[in-house]
Specification:
By secondary structure, the protein is mainly alpha-helical. It has one domain. The chain is 65% helix and 0% strand. It contains six helices and no strands. The longest helix has 26 residues. The chain starts with 6 loop residues before the first helix and ends with a helix. The model has no long low-confidence stretch (mean pLDDT 85). GO terms for molecular function: DNA binding. This is DNA-binding protein. Keywords: Coiled coil, DNA-binding.
């Protein structure tokens, strides 16, 4: 279990990038309920999920791990998984931007 998940920091970083928890959950392959458990320190974050979190908020895996309240041991991830995480994060960010544009244009 994480010692302290800094959900305020994650929410602020997501907002800075025009994203929200739903986009983060989708990118990490988590249901909104599972993401909520991670944010409440009731579910451990997996290394691949942590890689997505880092990519989505634009920080290193080590910083994402620290803010998630887990040790650096949770940060390593194999190169292929890291690349997939980066691609998934980019797709989720683009999807969030498209959804925002659709809402703003009334469509």
């Amino acid at each position: 279990m994480a010692l302290f998940f800094d959900h305020d920091w994650y929410d602020a970083r997501l907002e800075e990038r025009g994203l929200d928890r739903l986009a983060l959950a989708a990118a990490a392959g988590l249901s909104p309920a599972d993401l909520e458990l991670v944010f409440k320190d009731q579910r451990e974050i997996r290394p691949a999920e942590l890689a997505v979190f880092a990519e989505m908020v634009g920080v290193s895996r080590e910083e994402a791990a620290r803010r998630a309240g887990v040790g650096a041991h949770a940060a390593p991830v194999d190169p292929a998984a890291a690349r997939i995480a980066r691609l998934e994060a980019r797709v989720a960010a683009l999807e969030a931007q498209v959804a925002d544009l659709a809402v703003r244009s009334g469509g």
